[in-house]
Task: inverse folding
């Protein structure tokens, strides 16, 4: 198994964009060669929705990547980049493999999620030429066409943003394969504890034979 390298130097040097809300985009956070290896190892997810990694059969390569993403180095860099105290923030990570008609509707993430990190594990191809399924950082909650930034969900691109009252995002309808890892640094209040418990329960249920 070859280890997947994450480009922490690129993240450190990437500027924080302020519009429509503070965020960082890092193209090729995973290199093209490593991305090909990861894509070949990704588990099949026949249904939509989010899967905790504990509910999936992961290869050692993908498991190592997941562990690295949840490790202290990325958390420390994110905290420094955005001036946050994340020392005691629990992590919650899920994977997606398919996008459904209902996915991508305009939303803000739960206030229990202090920071949202998205890593896109798709090759760049014709699927994204229409811009359907490309994540948009929006100026408000009403119109998916009213955006400042559009992120193509491909080529190991990393997107990081602290959550807040104006962090509206979504994408135009897309149905098909769309691999993404979502990592959140969580608050420690009651609502966050509830989300983490639900996350663990979801992992248990999705491991059961009848869940697939």
Result:
């Amino acid at each position: 198994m070859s280890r997947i390298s994450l480009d922490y130097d690129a993240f450190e040097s990437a500027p924080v964009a302020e519009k429509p809300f503070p965020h960082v985009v890092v193209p090729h956070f995973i290199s093209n060669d490593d991305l090909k290896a990861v894509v070949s190892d990704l588990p099949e997810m026949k249904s939509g929705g989010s899967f905790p990694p504990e509910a999936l059969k992961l290869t050692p390569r993908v498991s190592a990547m997941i562990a690295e993403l949840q490790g202290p180095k990325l958390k420390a860099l994110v905290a420094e980049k955005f001036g946050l105290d994340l020392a005691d923030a629990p992590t919650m990570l899920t994977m997606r493999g398919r996008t459904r008609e209902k996915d991508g509707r305009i939303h803000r993430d739960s206030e229990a999620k202090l920071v949202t990190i998205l890593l896109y594990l798709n090759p760049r191809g014709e699927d994204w030429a229409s811009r359907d399924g490309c994540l948009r950082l929006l100026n408000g909650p009403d119109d998916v066409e009213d955006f400042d930034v559009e992120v193509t969900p491909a080529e190991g691109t990393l997107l990081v943003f602290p959550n807040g009252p104006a962090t509206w995002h979504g994408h135009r309808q897309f149905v098909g394969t769309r691999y993404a890892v979502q990592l959140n640094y969580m608050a420690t209040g009651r609502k966050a504890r509830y989300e983490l418990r639900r996350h663990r329960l979801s992992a248990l249920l999705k491991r059961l034979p009848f869940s697939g």
Notes: The CA atoms of residues 100 and 175 lie 5 Å apart. The longest strand covers residues 176-186. Helices lie at 8-13, 32-41, 60-69, 72-82, 190-206.
